[in-house]
Write a structure and sequence with these properties.
Number of strands: 4
Structural class: alpha/beta
Strand content: 5-15%
Order of helices and strands: EHEHEHEH
CATH architecture: Alpha-Beta Barrel
Distance between the termini: 34 Å
Largest sheet: 4 strands, parallel
Mean pLDDT: 92
Number of domains: 1
Helix content: 25-40%
Strand order of the largest sheet: 1-2-3-4
Low-confidence stretches: none
Length: 129
């Protein structure tokens, strides 16, 4: 695991609950065996919407993803954290992570930060201003 450091970055808001690994990294991109190159497939179907946060230039280069409750549910694919990290995220903040997603993230140095709903809502509010 990488040494922890202070992350100074724009935060990207993903104000959605129950985001599962199939949405983070769709199954059609799981055939690759390399651990890199997944960033372009991150939230592949959702990025078709021009209003999706990853398409917003304000958040370009964001290293922190602020997500709604229960992030990373679903299947245990490692590809979801790989894609998040390959996109450039170094940390994810949510109220809850699926256990296997949390472990897969920690194993590659992507930091999952759990906090209460009030703190997450405050972050969303700060990002929107």
């Amino acid at each position: 695991m990488k040494k922890l450091k202070i992350i100074k970055s724009t935060m990207l808001p993903l104000n959605m609950s129950n985001v599962d690994t199939d949405q983070i990294m769709p199954k059609q991109f799981l055939k690759r065996v390399e651990r890199s190159g997944y960033g372009e497939y991150l939230f592949y179907d959702w990025k078709k919407d021009p209003d999706f946060p990853l398409n917003n230039g304000l958040y370009k280069g964001a290293k922190v993803l602020v997500a709604g409750d229960n992030f990373g549910t679903g299947s245990s694919r490692e590809h979801a954290p790989w894609g998040l990290q390959d996109w450039g995220f170094e940390a994810i903040i949510s109220t809850k992570f699926a256990d296997i997603f949390r472990l897969n993230s920690i194993n590659i140095g992507l930091v999952p930060i759990e906090t209460n709903q009030e703190n997450v809502e405050a972050l969303f509010s700060k990002i929107d201003t």
